[in-house]
Amino acid sequence: MFRYILRRLLMLPLVMLGVTFFLFFLTQRLSPEMRASLYIQDPRQMDSLEEVIEKYGLNDPMPVQYFRWLKGAVKGDLGYSESANMPVTSAIKAYLPATIQLAAATIILVVLFGVWLGIISAKYKDGISDNVIRFFVLAGFSLPIFVLGLILLMIFYGKLGWFAPGEYSFTADMIIHGPNFKNYTGFSLIDSLLNLNFYVFFDVLKHLILPAVTLCIGSFALMVRVMRSSMLEELNKDYVRSARARGLSEFKVIYEHAGLNAMIPVVTLASIQFIRLLGGTVIVETVFDYPGIGRWGVECAQQLDIAGVMGFSLMVAVLFVLGNLAADILYTAIDPRIRLK
Amino acid sequence: MAELLRAENIAKSYVSGGAFGGGEKIAVLKNINFSFDEGESFALLGPSGCGKSTLARLMLALERPDSGKIFIEGQDIFSLKAKDLKALRRKVQPVFQDPYSSLNPRMTVSDILAEPFIVHGEKYRQSDLKKLLSQVGLGENSLRKYPSEFSGGQRQRIAIARALALKPKLIIADEPLSSLDVSVQAQILNLLADIKEEYGLSLVFISHDLALCKFLCSKAAVMHKGEIAELGKAEEILLEPKSEAAQTLLEAVLPLN
Amino acid sequence: MSIKDIISKALVSKNAAAGLIIIVLFALVALFAPILAPSSGRDPYQMPQGGYSIEPQAPSAQHYLGTTENQYDLYYGIVWGSRMAFKVGITVVFFALLIGIIIGGAAGFAGGWTDEILMRLTDIIFAVPSMVLAMVIAAMLGRDLDNMMIALTVVSWPSYARLVRGGVLSVKEREFVLAARALGASPLRIFLKHIMPNAIYPVVIMASLDIGYIVLTAASLSFLGLGSPVGTADWGQLVALSRNWILGGHGNPFAYWYTIAAPGGALLLFVLAWNLLGDAFRDILDTSSRKA
Fold it and tell me: Kind of pairing, strands C67-68 and C72-73?
């Protein structure tokens, strides 16, 4: 087990090297002129194109340019993101908290609904509720996330006006960037509480709900399925039978005894899904105009902001690989029946 | 009679555990020596996990030993050139334990029986395939069927027919009965005896059942933990087992008889 | 278990049968697209524009499903979009499977360093979430249908390669392979005749069921403006065109509901059908592999 983790950790830099080299290779498909224009702030300066190509060595062989980028990356200099109008590292720092906040809110919803529906599904196995739940879960899973997002916006923003796109309202924005609001963590939800500013807190929460619900519907299918089968397994165990025989109420049996034990795989799945979400918020953030890392990534891709694309992909890849490793470890730690090779 | 097969000082071990080193070396075969003549049949007996199957794979040149040699008709089979090895393979054919795994499920019986001819670039006619089938007691309508349409015993017959296609001198049967029903076991045993007679071939009969081997084999070796515990005439081992390993094996089957 | 068994067993489930029926209906629409929605232009996948007004028009006798932004006929877009969905799904699955089979087969059969290097290659692709990687590749290659399919193929093949490799590794040890080796069959013959036919069938089934997922990812790329070119009959793009109209107008928040309902509904139905079918197959393939 220890050797396995060590091996994966040692593999990590190698995999990152491979990923970045592959992506950098892709960026080279754009002409030096195109890549040069990304460094120019003002189109009227276009006559200095040659200088820019010269200055950044955009005509050098690809490996040379790659190693120049890599040298910078190791030092923490990932270049300047045109689409964000700031250095890539600052962009990551600015956008990542919003995405983590969204992913966390989503996971809370996924666990709540997944566990609840999973228990009902298991309790009435093969009954009407079970089949209805299973069908709707599959339908939610099949519903394109951008279609769902737009429909929810149509109803709850357009018609009812309850929620709005973005991370917070204009007023909240003014307060957050005002003189009396201290940025402790960069997480708007936590900062607003620390500043005891409940107006901002509820404003942020209000903006968080719609994208979180959208992501939740798109990803809780697996959770329901896992909870259902885990619950079915627990309900067949001796201790549940004896608890029933002792005359414990059905509610106690299901929710306190079997339910708690059935939660083990749920915890691991939730941790895995949380990681997946960090890379999977790309579309939702775009639909809801939510200023997280995903929307920035899409903008980088759309605007061919190469430094941004490289930085964004690198960051997502590191999070994704480390997260998957952590989930694997958690999985074996919680469930000793699974042994890694 | 000329010597057909001789095994000299065979040793083989496997590395168990992690792919990244640190695994333990486990000796599967140690100091194996035996030989038998043309037309003679040899029984290899022992409990499961004693190294019988590994030895079978070595005799079929499917694996290489760590040390030691096997000679077939005087040729050292592990130092043959590719061409000579292929020529040797015609003379030595296997019949495996599990007839559900030994026939390719995506080939018809016709394809399976034709393969030996194709591999060795020999011409064959449908009648050749039909003849092979009739020799193992199956009708010609079986040719177009797939292995899944047959019972375990029938599949084992097909596997035997495949082994016979190239008219080998030696068939290595690795527990050919152990996954079959008892009633079918006798049929296959009789089939092997008939074929041995008809083709005048040798048989290495690998089994954990001491009693079965006496029908087929004159010589026998009892294996225990990768070593030969007792070597001699099959009948003698059966009647007066000297080694503890042979006695244990015999006790295991006696209640059944 | 034979393929026939698997298919007949899967279709016993009502969900799977429903999924299959929907897929067949879409296939019919795709097949008869030239009759259902005759095209006048040279490229039938390019949606005709019936005017220059931006504002969508409600369904009418002239436009069965209405028009979306820039007067693209929604009915035309849905019909030819079905053909586009199959085109993208089948092409991507085909090439991803081809690459997966070659690379996974080589890795499993050769073992050793070949295996190690090829599997690290799949690690590289797996290191980035497939949606993100597809997005970046599509963006760098440029907005074009072929480029989008290339991007989707690049992110899809590694999982097939891993499945094929696993299959090859398990078949490699089966006794019929040993029997073929004992016959003196060449490695190439063993690989093509004995190992591959037995290793790839489950993977081929799984991969074909991925068509729904691939069409969904393709639609997502198109939605982000990184997929099919402007004006292509593509459900994802049609959804993107509805974005400016979801808040409605003329005092009615749902005034332009059809702009999202039509393409969104088609996409949902298509993906749902594949998931219904896929679910049933996955259950069976799972249990049969567990028993083996």
Answer: antiparallel
Q: Specify which residues C239 forms β-bridges with.
A: none
Chains that touch C (3 or more CB pairs under 8 A): A, B
Q: Are residues A181 and A275 in the same domain?
A: yes
A68 lies in the same domain as A105: no
pLDDT band of C86, cuts 50, 70, 90: very high
Count of the separate structural domains present in chain A:
2
* Residue A151 in domain: yes
**Mutation target vs C (from A38, A142, A282, A322; most C CBs, 10 A cutoff):** A142
Tell me which range, A109-118, A134-143, C36-45, is most confidently predicted by mean pLDDT.
A109-118
Quote the minimal CA–CA distance from C278 to chain B in Å. Answer: 24
DSSP H or E segment with residue A233: helix A221-235
Q: Is the dihedral of CA C202, C204, C209, C213 positive or negative?
A: positive
Kindly list the residues from chain C whose CB atom is less than 8 angstroms away from the CB atom of residue A298.
135, 224
Task: Kindly state whether residues A71 and A137 are assigned to the same domain.
Answer: no
Residue A103 belongs to what domain range? Answer: 87-334
CATH (domain of A167): 1.10.3720.10
| Domain shared by A218 and A326, yes or no | yes
Q: Which tens digit of pLDDT belongs to each residue from C3-43?
A: 677 777 777 777 788 889 999 999 999 999 888 878 877 78
End-to-end CA distance of chain A: 7
Residue A214 and residue A116 share a domain: yes
Tally of residues, chain B: 257
Residues C179, B107: C-beta atoms closer than 8 Å: no
**Residue among B106, B146, B162 with most chain C CBs within 10 A, to mutate:** B106
